[in-house]
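ok so I'm stuck.
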Amino acid sequence: MQADTGLPPSPITSEVDLDASGKQVGYLRLPHSVHRSAYGWLPIPVASIASGQGPAILVMAGNHGDEYEGQILVSRLIREIDPQWVRGQLILLPMANYPAARAGSRTSPLDEGNLNRSFPGNPRGTPTQVIADYIERSLLTRVRVVIDLHSGGSSLRYDGATLFAQRDPDPVGQERLLAALHAFGLPLSFINDSPNPVGLLAAARRRGAMALFAELGGGGEVTSSVLDTAWQGLLHVLGHLGVLHGPQVPAAPPHRTRLLHVNRASHYVHARDDGIFEPLAQLGDRVKAGQPAARLHSPSHPEREPARVDFPADGVVVCRRVPALTECGDCLFQLAADL
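replied:
not stuck anymore, here's the structure
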């Protein structure tokens, strides 16, 4: 676990006593002084469900505010899980970047902050940086596992319910990670080699916690089948991890997961021109390097042929852009290959 040196305490205070037993629901208060409210604070919903001895696990959503599936699932955990079924502690954050979630935006309207690009944060920084600092220093230091529920948001759609994790260099840790992926049991699970150093997965690694990172549909909408699959998997993995017991834990995971690998260098397809995006492949397709991936049309220059984008590698299409209007640098597709 990384030590903190010379950092001031977080300005965030919690209405919930994270050291107490039972179920508590309240807010993390982030001081926020603005014209309309000189002595105000931002209300970040938080809950703790604790009972007896066992692991502490953080389940969070709303890291990106336009990703709705996880916000529904974490809220359901808060409503439906009784302390009698818990051994240890569940810390639950349904709207981690509250300003972004309230606005339905990937980033915060207060500072344009992307929470999953803001770790380790700064207790004296912008609101998003302060939230990142609190999660890393005050919450991740308490837990053994963090489960972060994402989706493709407004601009992307994943192929159903999927799960990401970072390869653990320790063989024992890697075995534990793979067991958790299988226990979650989403149809597809991806193993990445190196975490983004400013993302939550890297923050969890710095704090000695295992991290699971779900991508649940997207496209700015909510799909009942994806929610049902993710709910069963979430309850099953919480049972596997030893924090949840009793009738809430399903007898089996929802699927036998397929393990895949994502290569940051070759598995992302980006636009190199502005234009209207015409996809030439769909979610679940197997594609080959050099195969046409998309056309980018330019009606403002109708004499020009559409720009063609090719797949840079072999793989399975696991994620596709949703909006047709596209700019140079936008992600069009994500691929994965069997592990």
